[in-house]
Amino acid sequence: MIWVVDAQEINVVVSAKGEVEVLQWNEQKKVIQVPVSMRNAEVIWAIRNLLKTKPPNTSLNIIERLEVFDKYWPIKVFVNKKPAYMEDGIIHCYIRERRMSSTEEIKIKDELLRLFVLRQVGQWEETLELLIPHITFRRNKNKPYIVQRRKESICFDKKLYDLSLGTIAYCLFNAVADYVGLKDGFRKELINQHFPTWKTLEKNISYAYATYDNH
Questions:
Q1: C-alpha closest to that of 130 among 192, 181, 169
Q2: Out of the domains of life, which is the source (predicted)?
Q3: Rounded to 5 degrees, what angle do the CA atoms 23, 74, 196 make?
């Protein structure tokens, strides 16, 4: 439906999602998506905040794509500050100003990587019936991960997000397998089942990390 706020026409789309999202914001058309439970006064406040902070002659989505996980992804921008996530091939994130700063870009990539790592590791924990108490991230130019059994921890390179999702998923499996000491036969069985292109994935990792050695 079309709302008129401060002499500006705004197309307001109602959604079951719990946050306000900007779908389009430029001279020609302004479209936002709001939760079905959001009160009219709150919607008006959100619109006025956008009108105040985003000049009408400038698109909100100047940065329409973000390069992460070895490809470019389309972006949808949050009105309110919250952690970034991916859904249906789209990155949902918060950008403070009209243009994404380098600091914001790194922060979004960090959030996306952390979310992916925790989800994937959690799935392997469930499959292998184990628990890894601590998952940490630190810059490591030489290795994608370091297993620290005494600390009950796996430390992943903070810039794993430069690799593809498939390559990262393979790294995560190997990290978990190293942590638990998975027997070679069972390990190879799982690799062939879940990572049929593992030879290519190994090459990708070896290219990115000079001292990587997966046995």
A1: 181
A2: Bacteria
A3: 140
- Residues paired with residue 201 on neighbouring β-strands, in sequence order: none
The three-state secondary structure class of 147 is strand
Q: Is the dihedral of CA 30, 34, 36, 38 positive or negative?
A: negative
Q: Is 154 helix (H, G, I), strand (E, B) or coil?
A: strand
CB 57 within 8 A of CB 48: no
Mean pLDDT, contiguous 10-residue spans, the chain (215 residues): 82 79 76 84 85 56 73 83 88 79 91 97 95 95 93 96 95 96 95 95 89 67
All structural domains of the chain:
2-59 (no CATH), 65-101 (no CATH), 109-208 (3.30.2010.10)
What are the tokens at 203? 């090459």
126 half-sphere exposure, CB direction, 13 A CA radius: 6
Nearest to 32 by CA among 93, 78, 90, 97: 78
Output the pLDDT for position 214: 63
User: CA separation (Å) from 57 to 10, 53, 81?
Assistant: 15, 12, 23
| Both structure tokens of 148 | 């620290």
In the numeric block, the tokens 């902070």 are attached to 53
- Name the CA radius of gyration of the chain, rounded: 21
Q: Give the per-residue pLDDT at 144.
A: 95
